[in-house]
Amino acid sequence: MKLTTLLRLQVIYFVLGMLYNGLSLYLTATGKPPLAPTQPVLGAISMIVYALFLIPGYLRKITLYRILMGVAILVMGYGGVVTHIINIFTQPQLYSSIVSWAAAVGINLFGLVLNIIAVSGKFKT
Predict the structure, then answer these.
(1) Which parts of the chain register pLDDT below 50?
(2) pLDDT score, position 32
(3) Distance CA 59, CA 105 (A)
(4) What sections of 2-77 are H helices per DSSP?
(5) Which end of the chain has less neighbouring CB within 10 Å, N or C?
(6) In whole angstroms, what is the distance from residue 90 CA to residue 83 CA?
């Protein structure tokens, strides 16, 4: 995979995460429960920070990009995947539905796979 393709897919991950958090924020603003236990504003901020982590990739600062993707794996891999999986078994009521849970896990698994590709250097510059 080319670096440009990887970065485009990572931007898609960013957009999906922002849409999920945006919908969750809208729901809470209209008096409905959020999609997931993640506070939507904090979720959106973390996605914005993630998008900033992509800038070194676009600038071809590959070492820095790979290091930042390692940080993203640690933070978002745990908070975005592991935590949601644990929660569905221990506190399923935290999610508005099984679909909202599956979307949260699916979006974050997508990003996790992309970040693993980035960290491992399995792309062409």
Answers:
(1) none
(2) 97
(3) 30
(4) 3-29, 40-58, 62-77
(5) C
(6) 10
